[in-house]
Amino acid sequence: MKKMLSTLACMAILSSTLGANECICFELKGEFGEEIKAIMQKYSKNLGSKDIKVVREDADITIQERSFLDSIIGTGVVASNAKGANLENGKKLYERDCASCHGQKGEIFVASKPPINTWKASDIVNEIRSYQNQTFEGQSRFVKNQVAQRYTRRDMEDIGAYLETLR
């Protein structure tokens, strides 16, 4: 996983020399890899400046990518986006991944908890995040973890916002 994500970092570095829809992947090892890491650490404080364009925002980064970026740039923070929730995306993800157990309208009681269509969006996000980071110990935790690994924070927020519309 780390090898794949290091390639992601390289694509981000190289994107300034390529067209907007092009990318090249490299695996950086040894002294050169360490030099690139040092450069990223040095300039991470400039995120959001005219010289460094954030292509993928914090809400679009998966938990694995966030972990890798934190290891590379330390306290560098990727700019967030003030856009509202995408209800269409939330509906699509909910219907694909959740409705078979929780019901089309989130109305089914699961594991003696209230139906999820009565929850606040933030509680839904926290619940999905617990699936993703494997701190959830309840029913179907392995299935929920596999599903949640694909989600970005924005996806989780979209699902939560969509479920709030089902009340």
Give an overview of the whole structure.
The protein is mainly alpha-helical. The protein has helices at residues 2-14, 30-43, 63-73, 87-97, 99-102, 121-132, 141-148, 153-164. The longest helix is centred in the first third of the chain and has 14 residues, at 30-43. The chain is elongated and about 55 Å long. The N and C termini lie far apart (39 Å).
Short description:
The protein is an all-alpha fold and 167 residues long. It is 51% helix and 0% strand.
> Low-confidence segments, ≥5 residues, pLDDT <50?
1-25, 75-82
Principal-axes geometry comes out as: elongated
SSE pattern, N- to C-terminal = HHHHHHHH
Q: Could you give the distance between the termini?
A: 39 Å
Mean pLDDT: 74
Percentage of β-strand residues = under 5%
List the helices and strands and how they pair.
Layout: H1 2-14, H2 30-43, H3 63-73, H4 87-97, H5 99-102, H6 121-132, H7 141-148, H8 153-164
Helix pairs in contact: 1-3, 4-8, 6-7, 6-8
Throw out a few tags for this protein.
about 170 residues, elongated, single chain
